[in-house]
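> tool_call: predict_assembly(chains=two)
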Amino acid sequence: MHFELTQEFIDNLIEIIESQNVKKARRLLNELHAADIALIYDNLNIEQAKFLFLLIDDGEKAADVIAELDENDRIRFLKSLPSDVIAERFIDYMDSDDAADVIADLPEDRQEEVLKKIKDLEQAGDIVDLLAYDEDTAGGLMGKELIVVNINTDVESAIAEIRSQALEVDEIYYIYVVDDDKILRGALSLKKLIIAKPNIKIKDIYLKDIISVKADMPADEVANIADKYDLVALPVIDSIGRLLGRITIDDLVDVINEEARKDYQMISGISDDVEHSDSIWRITKSRIPWLLVGLVGEIIGSRVLGLYHGNLAEHAALAFFLPLIVAMGGNVGVQSSSIIVQGLANGTLGFGSTTKRILKEMSVASINGIITSGILLAYNIIFSDSLALTISVSTALFSVIIFASMFGTFVPLTLHKMDIDPAIATGPFITTSNDIFGMIIYMSISGIMFYYL
Amino acid sequence: MHFELTQEFIDNLIEIIESQNVKKARRLLNELHAADIALIYDNLNIEQAKFLFLLIDDGEKAADVIAELDENDRIRFLKSLPSDVIAERFIDYMDSDDAADVIADLPEDRQEEVLKKIKDLEQAGDIVDLLAYDEDTAGGLMGKELIVVNINTDVESAIAEIRSQALEVDEIYYIYVVDDDKILRGALSLKKLIIAKPNIKIKDIYLKDIISVKADMPADEVANIADKYDLVALPVIDSIGRLLGRITIDDLVDVINEEARKDYQMISGISDDVEHSDSIWRITKSRIPWLLVGLVGEIIGSRVLGLYHGNLAEHAALAFFLPLIVAMGGNVGVQSSSIIVQGLANGTLGFGSTTKRILKEMSVASINGIITSGILLAYNIIFSDSLALTISVSTALFSVIIFASMFGTFVPLTLHKMDIDPAIATGPFITTSNDIFGMIIYMSISGIMFYYL
């Protein structure tokens, strides 16, 4: 029931395409869901994809395939097509939000060309309206397809309205209720409409106090609201409350996935949205920036250690625990910063000032610091014959853990206050900074210990 | 329009509760959405929460509040309530899937007690059915509330069916179509039902080839399917295709969020689902396991370095670059493993054997290795007066990057094949292992270089 892409399937498909076997290709396309056809794209060249996609007879399905394509793939594919094909074979069949996304992907000069070729003028108008919104806001996510009824009409006219718009709107979750000024007043579920008598007034059965979002609300906040209140669709309003469009949950699920992926890649030290199946060049490009940040940071670290050259030369055993100290600092720093970054992203941080949060993290760090440096102390008492080393290493470990937890809490909170994405304070940035501070702390403490003990 | 919890609100609320001001508390509860009331819980003690939650007059809303509570909070809250209150005030009003989740949270002996107090016997039966499924499968996510029509009936009887079940089912997205053997044959959107004439047969308008899932499918796979095909609800079937229930998108969004959080916490070295607002003790407990893994790993690392004591004592400058080598290995390892872990989670890994994947990662690593070790070479040619050190450091960096990328690719793929969650191969595990291998590589190469140069 669920299609799984295999190498055999692709080999077979390419053979069908290369032999221009239209009949076989059509049969295959009919069996597949649009999302699955879109998945195939990665394994075809442009000419093969063009041959295949233009064979899809069902306009809705062809449009869905284009809408489901990965953004980079779509840009490449559309580049190879004339404007009238894009407009008539794809855009005309799309929901306005998907259509606006596709048009936005085109270079400026082609946007107008394609818009002019769209036959459905209402659709073209909707797209132009939607292009005005930033793509990472509620306005950028919404579609114009919605069923709207006036609060003063009755159930019968609402049903008539649905009939008249049925072809335009794919899925109906709610009917939105507006007043004479087009101000959103509430909503009505289809279920309620079906079980109500035809002459009942909308104002007697509609749901007040529904949740709506303003067009300029950031996409991730919209997704958080839909998640929190378990909504499948959200109406979008302008600053005076007029209904502009609606956002459907599938687009919000994409936002949720994208945000999660972004945070995960940030903490992994990857700077761009890449997958293992991307080209070697793209993957390399996404990784080298953070590696360079790490390299420069660690070169600075090597200079810091150079300052303690005498100590390291005299007591080589100090170097044995250097990786331990910096690694533990890095681990604690990432633990602390990631919980703050996640809390900021999903609004579960609770109340409290930066100072209060840092104090809390320090309490956690103190317990963990006592446990780990205690174990290390016991280890060195047994295995090391240098008292200075034994005390240095455990004291430094405890101090580094406390410091790293403070630093890992402070930095993302500060970035957030400065309106910078706090997620950059995870991964290589936080580990590299903590490495340097860890070396300074370790070398200073051991310098004192070896001097006095 | 969206409620934001503030310290002032909580202070005010606690004052209302402490003064037992029922009227004021009721007014406040009426204004709030169930999800917002649930959020308040964290800031109240059990007695305060009990006073407040039992004042909610609307049964549906009270049930929603309980359903929205964090699992740990819910367990604690329900423990303080008698079984008949749980059954009559909450369970009776819940959707069967939420009700089953709540019952499953109770200790075994109380489950039966509560089940016996449920007045709606159909609801009790549904819950018992649902309790049989593992909570991380489609069966564990599904609810029994659905509108089902026989394929041989007509539109009029479908509407009658909706009327008769309207009170049971909150939201209707689809009407499911079954045959006489209760085998799922397809679905019908409410929109289609509204615009169809009453005497039209269901079999002439229903949608065939709908996507369904088997009851034992893992929850994350179900979420991937809903995401891929943009579904708001998914029917669940048994092994011979009989319709068992339906899963709604809000539950799948929770699954998606939870999976993302789990992966993120794993890469951060946090072993449990915690938030910054949790207790210091809980946060500590979630962090210490990976810190101990790191500590033990790095103690092993210190013993490895001990083997090269002579070298380190003679050439103290070797230690300057020790953190650099291990840190870069750690960074590359995390980059490689995270892309594999994400690819395995969302099915974007593409084809290919483990060998092919490792070769690809090695190509990426070679480019990054050449760039970074080239820069380091240039740096040391300018700043270092030891040729052996200069060559050692850059050679070791290149080798460590290649090794870390192979290791970071191989380990998660192997864990996945062994049916172990590959996500454990991110974060502290991969960095610590790479640290140890990095030390061995660096010390071996430098040992040879200083011997021959």
